[in-house]
User: Fold these one by one.
Assistant:
Number 1:
Amino acid sequence: MTMTTSLAALQAWVDSVAKLTQPENIHWCNGSDAENKRLINEMLRTGDLLELNPKTYPNCYLHRSHPSDVARVEHLTFVCTREQGDAGPNNLWMAPDEAHAKIDALFDGAMQGRTMYVIPYCMGPIESPYARLGVEITDSPYVVVNMRMMTRIGTDALKRIEREGTFVKGLHSTGDLDPEKRFIMHFPEELTIKSVGSGYGGNALLGKKCHALRIASWQARDEGWMAEHMLILGIENPLGEVHYIACAFPSACGKTNLAMLIAPESHKGWRVWTLGDDIAWLHMDEDGKLRAINPEAGYFGVVPGTNEKTNKNAFDMIHGDTIFTNVALTADNEPWWEDKKVGAPAVDWMGRKYDAANGPAAHPNSRFTVAAKRNPAYSTLAEAPRGVPISAIVFGGRRRELAPLVYEARDWNHGVLVGASVASETTAAATGEVGVVRRDPMAMKPFCGYNFADYWAHWLSFGEQSKLLPRIFHVNWFRQDAAGKFLWPGFGENLRVLRWIVDRCEERMGARDAAIGYLPEPGGIDLSGLDISTDTMDALLSVDPSKWQAEMAAVGEYIETFGDRVPAKLKAEHAKILKALNGA
Ligand code: SAT
Ligand code: MN
């Protein structure tokens, strides 16, 4: 085998993987256009990709996954630390030795007859001191072309890896896609990921959830920063001033839509800029401000529901240079999905003639992969090595009732409790029942690579270090009336709530003190040009003390399941809110 890197540790690892998996060829990815074209042509030949209508969707392709491989598999995702307590009750755990043995048996000979791709990648701007490196080895060309859009792959990343010597090792094989032989395993102490038996995004594009959240959250705790499941946006007012906000919502709760928000007619001169739609890495700077970078360079977004009205930026950007996974097709060979509002399905996501009796035409978790630069609202500051200063952190979830449209935490420690209390109705982004409320602290339940109790302590530790931290808020776009109708119009109108948040950060807006935190006063949210009744606004901003007492009791019980490791400060915050609710 020819030597292909000057870094002995990397070469030794690649050699050992090749010995185990026995590929026919080994290809080191340089990330070039020519390489990408070659891989796409090869996948067109094998049927892994289908070309879409080149007139209306130039450079766009459809990939159909195996029907049993359409979402993350949390029940097969493990964090393998030496001590079980370090993984915590929030993770499935396996002892590292046992996990390696189990998964290596599945890698044995897994790449026979296939090409093994070695993908050096950089999470974050290539010159950023906050960026981190990784190498993914995979036998899937689909993974290579997706990683190329989602991260920064190739020669520059390899150079930095060789310079620094440290990188996350990610080994992936699609195996035979047998759900019985599928595992996603993380070894944070070894900076290693092993994933077998799935080709789906979150399971196979190892730079994303596996590295940038699970492994990175562990590294961040050790090194004093934060790896979070947050979008990053810039909100520009008519004076040209920009505030940056980071928002943590669970998967498929509208992070991509919010990150690409278009100001409504009523808001001339306002703009939202996208820095990221899924992951933020936050570091404290010399002044004590939190700065955010987006470690990714592309979007892996939910397709259904995307249209001219809900997200025009996304709708426009996915009309070129996009890989679609598991959408339907029109008779004109254009991609189609539920709520696209144009065209009609002819062939469903499984390639069958469309028949409404078979369910939705596009899979509810069908996805687009596209480079961030195609977004008309893309902020070039996404390339800034030191990222952007964050004014507000916003938590949210999908809650039919209870949670008001927006409220603000009293201070950082209370904000950590608000984050720890996040709950949301489940979506199609993960395998399992959809629509049941589950606790999802900081929207990190599936992604925190260590014990939540330690994670909350890490969050609280920032409060001791700086007085210039972002303010913390909670939003809920999904509140419904008794008939199941959404009370808030959402989408572009969410800008009105973001404005209230910015005004609070700038200390130019009052608030009323409700037991759970600060809520907008009547008139606090600008409703000009919006047809919404006072009754509806009252309902959206109501706090029902008895329901909240029940909620906080449930939060208390949930936190208790993490036992002795739960920081006393978090329990004290919880006790404070309960007391305030009892007095309310
Ligand atoms: O896990 S993915 O990144 O594939 C999708 C999601 O759940 O956000
Ligand atoms: Mn996500």
Number 2:
Amino acid sequence: MSTSPRKPRVFSGMRPSGTATIGNYLGAIRNWVAQQAEYDNLFCIVDLHALDTLTDPNEMRDNIHGLAATMFAAGLDPEIAPLFAQSDVPQHAELTWTLSAVTQFGELSRMTQFKDKTAGKSDAAINSSMFFYPVLMASDILLYDSDLVPVGDDQRQHVELTRDIANRFNARYGETFVVPKADIKEVGARIMSLQEPTKKMSKTDPNVNSFIALSDESDVIKRKIKRAVTDSDARVAASPDKPAVSNLMQIYGILADMSLSEVEDHFAGKGYGPFKAELTDLLVESLAPIHENLRMFAANPDEVTRRLEDGAAKARVLAEAKMSDVNRKTGVGGKLHR
Ligand code: TYM
């Protein structure tokens, strides 16, 4: 009898700190869905990671639920890709503490995202959770023996740090954690703001015109694309000195399944007006099935809760086993478990 080899474990997460954007979709969710049948998946709404910015408990609850509905609406199949809320599995927080003992202050200080988010702020305005954030992220990943972590480009450094933490723990206590790899696609890994194309598109950007939310209706999409900044000449061409148009072309290319040069050929001699009109139509068309599913979940919110509870039950089994192994290895606890 032949046994089929174990499928690689995929783990990824998203903060419920706002509404999911097309950046989140093109850089992450879409890839999770496209490859879910190939892997043994777990996806997580990382609510503890959002405590930093989200201080209203009702908003927290609504966002967790809303983001879960969006992920299911985008095609995540809970049978093969369980989704759960991070805080429903207490071992994430527990392992964070253990891993902090093999994480250096200097490493955390060097994280680009930490430096960007805290630039110009006084010490009193910076929560330590912002500093500690990558250790919690490492726990999310390492708790499940994850092989691959499909993320956008902004998370690359955090996955690198996770690898260092895993290697250091393994060296000190013996083989315990799988050392994961980031899975970052060549296209879509860095969708930029529609207003400031040198900045990443972000769901927490106070300027709502800078991003397109997956829930945006057609009139909103039309307005945001119309207002999206372009570059000085009128050519639809991708180049480093045309970051605004290059970004819009990238979005178009992914959704139309075309390379940047095909997009360029398609719009040769046409200018920004027709390009923006076609991009708007393509976005509206691409998001229509997600909107239809979202309406279905809005009419049946208990189904979303049920799926999250199911997901947490599956994750908990794995997390409990891993955490006992870790505690046995480090020797903590009152039991003489040798
Ligand atoms: P978050 O919630 O900021 O984003 C979720 C995912 O979306 C990707 N992404 C983008 N991709 C392309 N262009 C963009 N403009 C863009 N904005 C966001 C992110 O790279 C990410 O893949 N720290 C993580 C959440 C996290 C996590 C984890 C991820 C916590 N634990 C464990 C993987 C594994 C974050 O803040 O993602």
